[in-house]
User: What shape does this take?
Amino acid sequence: MEENNEKVLRTAVITGASRGIGRAIAIKLAKSGINVVIGYAGNSEKALETSNLCIEEARKNGFEIETLTCQADISTQEGASELINASLDKFGRIDILVNNAGRTMDNLLLRMDEEHFDKVIDTNLKGAFLCCQLVARTMMKQRFGRIINISSVVGLHGNAGQANYAASKAGLIGLTKSIAKELGAKGITCNAVAPGFINTDMTKVMTEDAKKGLMSTIPMKRAGEGSDIANAVAFLASEESSYITGQVLGVDGGMGC
Assistant: This one.
């Protein structure tokens, strides 16, 4: 990861950063001396915990960074604008956008409510679209930007009982590739990370039988950690990835093989 210097102090906006994968990403970027905006939906206590951890870990690496916690419903134009505008008001620039906010409302196709389909699409896909649209103009002026969308192995292969979630994550891949084509000439890259089975609060509620079934499909025979995703995001946010755009990086222990 490129370290900050006196000329450019990078700022990253991460949605859904109060816990889980989003928290791991925020901490990883902070450790590289990057200012972090912690977007969250409702848990201010967890968001503050993430903020404190980012500052602590950055100091351990010799950096004094600033953070901002911002509660916003990014599934709406108003909420997404609130997040991006608050970030620009504090830091004056946004160099990295990580669209990590997501939700699940699982059910079989024939039992799925239209409302549940819409809510998952609105948060996971529409929210990412709105944030991308809002930061694009700023990044174009800077002639620099890194957009990383957190998709899923489910978006590549589908999953029974998750038609809404799979559709949203597949949509993120199409969004990623389209943005890469539109903004590449402006010094902006856009890539996606597709996690597999990662230990998070979302997966903790699964039954042991369900976990065992999933584990049997993973060549590495273990679940991943939030840090595995954070490492991939940090690479795609760095100068080392400057000629990589429109790609989907699977971090899944081989599930997608």
